[in-house]
Amino acid sequence: MSVLAKICGLSSEEAIAAALLGGAAYLGFVFYPKSPRAVGAERAARLAAAIPKGVCRVGLFVDAADEAIGAILDEAPLDLLQLHGGESPERVEDLKRRFGLPVMKAVRIAGEDDVAAAERFEGVADLLLFDAKAPRGALPGGNGLLFDWRLLAGHSWRRPWMLSGGLNAELLPEAVRVSGASLVDVSSGVESAPGKKDPSKIRAFLEAARAL
Fold first, then answer.
1. Class assignment of domain 4-210?
2. Is 8 among the catalytic positions?
3. Considering the entire predicted model, what is its pTM?
């Protein structure tokens, strides 16, 4: 199985270089001010300038207003919007139409009901991302939390989907084996501290993905 990887929460040239050298297919920038991984539009634009065509530049937003998203897009070239909040299917559809970009909708998973609820996004989102449901008061993502990958095993989706939530180089082979994922996402699992990406961990994660 060929497994493609997304490195999320990038904020330094060194991390970008490690991700590109390792063959990451998606590079993610966080535009959620409360996150330790948040970057501004100007910084993201400078970092994105080093990303060649063929590598997807992803912007992560959490229940963001149109004006906030538009202000980012005016400066930073993005290829994909990642919605990581409580956005409805109608909101996904509206943002696709308004900004003319594909949308990946994150769905927080704790049990079977959450998996079933994800189906309502299949008709509007271009991709789905399954992340662990965070406890009340925690950040919506990047918490290093796992969920039961067996919840996804054998499920047939009409859209491409990405596995996230607490992954790292050591856990990746088992996560892919159990869930059947062919797209994976990592953030805290390649950090030395919250928001500080470790190039050596990025390289190790991408090596693990290539080996699958």
1. alpha beta
2. yes
3. 0.94
| Helix, strand, coil share of the chain (percent; to 5) | 35, 20, 45
Mean per-residue pLDDT, 51-70: 97
Contact at 8 Å (CB) between 207 and 3? no
Q: Residue ranges per domain, the chain?
A: 4-210
From first CA to last CA, the distance across the chain in angstroms is 6
- Calculate what percentage of the chain has a pLDDT beyond 90: 91
Q: Which residues contact 104 (CB under 8 A, 6 or more apart)?
A: 58, 80, 81, 82, 83, 125, 126, 127, 128, 129, 162
- Are 165 and 145 in contact, with CB atoms under 8 Å apart? yes
Q: Which residue among 131, 148, 185, 198 is the active-site one?
A: 131
Q: Above 90 in pLDDT, residue 60?
A: yes
79 as an active site residue: the answer is no
- Cα distance between residue 62 and residue 21, in whole Å: 29
The pair of three-digit structure tokens given for residue 17, joined into one six-digit string? 């270089």
